[in-house]
From TrEMBL:
It catalyses: N-{alpha-Glc-(1->3)-alpha-Man-(1->2)-alpha-Man-(1->2)-alpha-Man-(1->3)-[alpha-Man-(1->2)-alpha-Man-(1->3)-[alpha-Man-(1->2)-alpha-Man-(1->6)]-alpha-Man-(1->6)]-beta-Man-(1->4)-beta-GlcNAc-(1->4)-beta-GlcNAc}-L-asparaginyl-[protein] + H2O = alpha-D-glucosyl-(1->3)-D-mannopyranose + N(4)-{alpha-D-Man-(1->2)-alpha-D-Man-(1->3)-[alpha-D-Man-(1->2)-alpha-D-Man-(1->3)-[alpha-D-Man-(1->2)-alpha-D-Man-(1->6)]-alpha-D-Man-(1->6)]-beta-D-Man-(1->4)-beta-D-GlaNAc-(1->4)-beta-D-GlcNAc}-L-asparaginyl-[protein] (N-glucan mannose isomer 8A1,2,3B1,2). It is a single-pass type II membrane protein. This is Glycoprotein endo-alpha-1,2-mannosidase. The keyword Transferase does not apply. It is found in: Golgi apparatus membrane. Its EC number is 3.2.1.130. It is an enzyme of class 3 (hydrolase). The lineage of its organism: Eukaryota, Metazoa, Chordata, Craniata, Vertebrata. Gene3D superfamilies: Glycosidases. Transmembrane segments: none annotated. Keywords: Golgi apparatus, Hydrolase, Membrane, Signal-anchor, Transmembrane, Transmembrane helix. Belongs to the glycosyl hydrolase 99 family.
Length: 229
């Protein structure tokens, strides 16, 4: 992990498109989302992510914001012990995990606020992965012509999150893409499109809710003296 972070920052860190998040202290740090972070024990993460760790990355040129995946409720305290800077929920299926269940976002946000962690709920336009996992029909979530996406975005905003992540831009095989889509069929697959709506429906919805989030976030960030970028 250390080698990967070092490589990424050394190679791309000065590029104008390299994302950095402005912290409360005024620092602009890279942000790394760590998928399946719970598989590695907190004592191993702590060696890298805490200031007293044996291979600490903190207060070095490679310091960054590391965001852990929250799957089960019990993972919260492992994430805290590990030295992560925040929590994200990743999955686009409401109800699939504790973290991806909308009804739990307010509680997760309270936990993050208490321990000064970033809370990053993940929203998606729907979910269908039966082309690669035919047995997984119970986790299919219909897009309902954009209503599923807007419901998720609305509930994410209500939690006053630090950031909102989107799952995903172009993960077609799990049916979570929001990029422009036109009808397409191959011998093995029919690709989902957004008819009767325009090909750019989900990009338009993303812009609409991004603008709403930016305005609301600026308001509550000002109230709590939090950064707005």
């Amino acid at each position: 992990m250390y080698r990967n972070v070092k490589y990424i920052i050394d190679k791309y860190g000065n590029h104008p498109a390299f994302y950095r998040y402005k912290t409360k202290t005024g620092s602009s740090l890279p942000m790394f989302y760590v998928y399946d972070s719970y598989i590695t024990g907190p004592e191993h993460w702590a060696s890298l992510l805490t200031t007293s760790g044996s291979r600490s990355i903190r207060n070095s040129p490679y310091d960054a914001l590391f965001i852990a995946l929250l799957v089960e409720d019990k993972h919260k305290y492992d994430i805290l012990q590990s030295g992560f800077n925040g929590i994200y929920t990743y999955f686009a299926t409401n109800g699939f995990t504790y973290g991806s269940s909308y009804e739990n976002w307010a509680k997760i946000k309270l936990f993050c606020d208490h321990f000064q962690l970033l809370f990053i709920p993940s929203v998606g336009p729907g979910y269908i992965d039966t082309s690669i996992r035919p047995w997984n029909t119970q986790n299919t979530r219909n897009r309902i012509n954009g209503k599923y996406y807007e419901t998720a975005l609305n509930l994410a905003l209500q939690a006053h999150p630090s950031v909102i992540s989107i799952t995903s831009f172009n993960e077609w095989h799990e049916g979570t893409q929001i990029e422009r889509a036109v009808p397409k069929r191959t011998s093995k697959r029919v690709y989902l499109d957004y008819r009767p709506h325009k090909p750019g429906l989900y990009l338009e919805l993303t812009r609409k809710w991004s603008e709403k989030y930016s305005k609301e976030r600026a308001t509550y960030a000002l109230e709590r003296q939090q950064p707005v970028s």
